Predict the 3D structure of the following.
Amino acid sequence: MRTLLTHATLIDCVQPQAIEHASVLIEDGRIREIRAQAPPLEASDATVIDLQGAYLMPGLWDVHIHPDYLSLADVPLADQVTLFGHRLMAALTESGITGLRSAGTHSYMDVAWKRAFDSGQYVGPRLFAAGHFLTTTGGHFLGSGHALECDGPYGFVKAIREQIKNGVDHIKLNLSGGIMGPAWDRHQNSFFLDDELKAAFDICRLREFKVMAHATNPEAVKHAIRLGAHSVEHGYILDDECIELFLEHDTWYVPTLSISHLTPAQASNDWERRWVKNRNLAHALCCRADAASDVHGGWFAKALQAGVKMALGSDIRPLKDAALLEMGLWVRDGATPWQTLQAATKHGAAVCGVGEDLGTVEVGKLADLIVVAANPLEDIHNVRRLLLVLKEGRVVSDKRRRTAADAGA
């Protein structure tokens, strides 16, 4: 199967300029040729899609996601698994999120949907599974139902072996507390003892599984980096030594600004206000987020300026809105649209270990692509003006007619 995209304005997420009059030939799911200037490529046997100057770029990534937090007493497991799959597929078709990394689910529902998408049984995004997230008794976010409480070195080793046996791609460890939780679950507190930490990281290293480390204060962040975490999630409070360690160990940082920034007092546009209203977060939790926001945003900006490797993850729901909201917050906190786009494309694929095949528009890579109507390098919110989504060169979402009808109305 050959598809030819013509008259594109190309944002390849390799270089920070949009390239006009580009054409891209896709064959058997991969990008075979790119021509950066007119005249366009020709391929007599290809399906031709004239983009009429619209912006062609890699699909977006969200590398910190969870399903909806629902009680099994209120919503049966089968319904929760089905809802999660629907949310994942909507993220692809409605928002152009072509890759996602799970940060924890119960019942291995992320593993089940990963297998369903990878087999072609359903059309969905690329999904990297964590299974449960692991914490201590009295650890982080126990009320979600997605946590496994472990204690002692062997308790963590056994739980990690169970995760591996059930088909996860990486191991999620919650080393510290959070902003969202009961009074005893605070982001400035760490939970693991040294021997527990060492055992958990040792078995992951022996089994060659990457650790996705929830670490929210300097002590937890430093432990995670020194013990070999692949990525540090949140980092609400850092210090200068944390930033030095990020750079020294080449560790990824996923800041999840949405957790501390999306409250009624901080919402700054209609998308954020609508999300905040629907979320209806408890007042006490809004106060905790508001109190953490400036420190979180300040260390995010310092890490960005220092050159810490950063990828975009949201940690909120629904998945079709989450990454788009997070991208807006990156720019609000000082990132350029270019830095934000790279975090949500090239760096998202890289943190998931598939950067050689995905995340940029380059010859030889898989054609997971989106087309938007206006330039996101000028306004990051233009990623919302979605026209087309392609997965391995196949159109899986086409909003061009709907967009034209809306304009005509």
